[in-house]
Amino acid sequence: MAKKKSPTRTTKKTWTATKKKDASGANGLAMADGTPTDGRQQRAARNHAAIVEAVYALVRETGEPPDIDEVAARAGVGVRTVFRQFADLETLHRSVNARLDGEVRALLELPTGAASGVAALIERRARVFEHVAPFRRASRVARPSSRFIVEQEARMAALFRAALQGIVDADDEAFEAIDLLLSWESWERLRRTQHLSVSEAQRVVSAAARALLDGQRRRGR
Q1: Which of 17, 51, 96, 137 is most exposed, with the fewest beta carbons within 10 Å of its own?
Q2: In the prediction, which pLDDT does 34 show?
Q3: Residue 8 CB neighbour total at 10 angstroms
Q4: Residues 168 and 207 in one domain
């Protein structure tokens, strides 16, 4: 039987439809700490890291999901190597997100100019939202077919909600309004649709949150 010719250009659709394979790209042994023990495994590990870095860099630059040809060129590997390392997009999403998660944790730990409370929370979220914006925008294309992306977005929303519950004493309606106000979706609208700068968007969110909390305090008197 004749072998099928490889397409000259591999699309994101082809990537998504490709049969899932082991993301390691090889079956050699590894040491207890995960260090590859032979040349093929070491090369596979380097290729894996280069591909993740390529996707990360391309998405940060464009805010769009790159196609496989772009990833391969940036990583300095062949398209077949990309497929061997990441036969399905879910594996790639997880690998890129692992790096992004670490960066977000570091940003949340940085000090803020605001003393404490909601103002400090808004400043931290603005910092995080700006950092992850290209990836959130790019993920909209893959979201309908990616369980991981849906679960990750829900997890982040739940973490942010829990953080807000820890500092805001408000009735149900006021809390839900503030939770919405401080969400990624609100931030994205302010930045992309209403074309506000980071500082302008932060001031709008802060003013609206203060108004909601002040309104509740007046009702409580």
Answers
A1: 17
A2: 56
A3: 7
A4: yes
Model confidence at 74: pLDDT above 90: yes
Structural domain count of the chain: 2
* Whether residue 197 sits in one domain with residue 129: yes
Who contacts 63 (Cβ-Cβ below 8 Å, separation ≥6)? 133, 134, 137, 138
pLDDT for the residue 169? 85
**pTM of this structure:** 0.78
Instruction: Name which residue leads in pLDDT, 11 or 50.
Output: 50
Last residue of a domain, one of 85, 106, 122: 85
What is the domain extent for residue 52? 15-26+36-85
Compute the average pLDDT of residues 43-51: 92
C-alpha 173: how far from chain center? 29
